[in-house]
TrEMBL record:
Pfam families: Acetyltransf_6. SUPFAM superfamilies: Acyl-CoA N-acyltransferases (Nat). GO terms for molecular function: transferase activity. Residues 193-339 form the BioF2-like acetyltransferase domain. Keywords: Transferase. InterPro entries: Acyl_CoA_acyltransferase, BioF2-like_GNAT_dom. This is GNAT family N-acetyltransferase.
Length: 401
């Protein structure tokens, strides 16, 4: 049921009283009623697009219902917190080993899901109303993913709860982006002559070795959906990412989002075939001038042929030729292709805020303790050759399962 309340509060300098009207949309019908307000606000990330959001709510297994907080301030200014109420498994991990998990009822904010907030003060307003739902028992936890650690939102969130109710030492990862110019030549001109030469050589070697047997297909039409699902699964099933539970796995939610993207002209896949067999793909969503890639995949048995890089370069050529795309978002985390073709633009982390109740607080303390230990081990691994070999061997084992 939609909750509506009227409240009065002082602004930061206590010089005036401002009235707020707060509405919480808890059904898809109530979310749809917010479409005009939603469309009037700037959305950076496709995850916070209203239609993408509703598709996730309809198809994600762990989603209970929508939880979109609309705050209308004095003067008509609108704020939205785009979130879902979920049964969220909180994993307890040491290294790559999963020790167990606890399932908490969580308000999960979408990526870039605080809409309309122009400053720290308005971010405080949104977080205050989200936290009220923790206090009322609606949820045990607020989760915000991929928050810029240098942002006012991150700083505001860190002081929104007590020390014991916040997850500490959460991993920080870098977000990698690339500017997309109007030609592949311009895209590569900042790379060294040696790098450009190596790319041409690898391309030519692959074309020569598989002359007449190599085919790249660009799948971006609604009628491509069935072939796309089948061939992505054929490749993704062999990757180490499948062992991690990331990347394409053919879930109803993934397929529904791809269908939405194909219908809207957002989604594209570049699929490489050798002898009619799919061996590599790159895919993603173009939204608001940015192309956000998904998890790529390639057959690990053919890794020495650089089939993943070959396919990525074909994607880049097409994106450079598309005037609607000005940026490429490689996502967060470390990978050679990200540092080779993109630049780190910010550092991001998760924010987890728990209710002031015993069980959620205990879960946060466990998560924080394991995060401190994992960060120590991660530094040891990343700074040693044996650690890098161990990590590479683990990925090979995951891919072979």
């Amino acid at each position: 049921m939609t909750a509506i309340m009227e409240s009065r509060r002082f602004v930061a300098d206590h010089s005036a009283v401002v009235e707020e009207k707060v509405t919480v949309a808890t059904t898809l019908e109530e979310v749809e009623a917010l479409r005009d307000v939603w469309k009037s606000l700037h959305v950076d990330d496709i995850d916070s697009d209203i239609d993408y959001y509703m598709t996730v709510v309809r198809h994600a297994d762990q989603v209970i219902r929508p939880h979109v907080v609309h705050i209308r301030q004095d003067g008509g200014a609108d704020l939205l917190a785009v979130a879902r109420l979920e049964n969220l498994p909180v994993p307890f991990r040491f290294g790559y080993r999963r020790l167990g998990s606890a399932t908490l009822r969580a308000i999960v904010v979408t990526f870039g899901g605080i809409l309309g907030a122009r400053n720290k003060y308005e971010e405080e307003i949104v977080l205050r109303h989200l936290k009220k739902d923790l206090d009322k028992g609606v949820a045990d936890l607020i989760l915000m993913r991929n928050v810029d650690v240098d942002s006012t939102l991150y700083a505001t969130a860190l002081v929104a709860t007590g020390w014991a109710q916040r997850a500490h030492a959460q991993p920080v990862s870098r977000r990698w982006m690339a500017v997309i110019p109007d030609s592949m030549t311009r895209f590569l001109e900042t790379r060294s002559a040696k790098t450009r030469g190596n790319l041409r050589r690898h391309d030519n070697q692959l074309r020569m070795e598989f002359a007449g047997r190599l085919e790249l297909r660009h799948l971006d039409r609604p009628e491509d959906a069935a072939d796309l699902y089948r061939d992505m699964e054929a490749v993704a099933a062999k990757t180490y990412q499948r062992g991690l539970g990331v990347g394409f796995s053919g879930t109803p939610m993934q397929c529904a989002l791809i269908k939405l993207g194909l219908d809207r002209g957002w989604y594209r896949t570049w699929m490489l075939y050798i002898d009619e067999r799919p061996v590599a793909f790159w895919s993603g969503f173009g939204y608001g001038g940015t192309f956000q890639i998904g998890t790529p995949g390639f057959d690990p048995d053919m890794s020495k042929l650089s089939i993943g890089r070959f396919t990525m370069l074909r994607m880049l050529e097409d994106l450079c030729a598309d005037p609607a795309i000005s940026e490429l978002d490689f996502g967060h985390g470390e990978a050679d292709y990200k540092s080779s073709f993109g630049r780190a633009v910010r550092s991001e982390s998760e924010v987890m805020l728990a209710a002031s109740r015993p069980w959620p607080t205990l879960v946060m303390l466990a998560v924080s303790s394991l995060s401190f230990a994992n960060n120590l081990v991660r530094r040891l691994v990343e700074n040693s050759e044996w650690g890098r070999r161990l990590k590479a061997g683990w990925r090979r084992r995951m891919a072979s399962r």
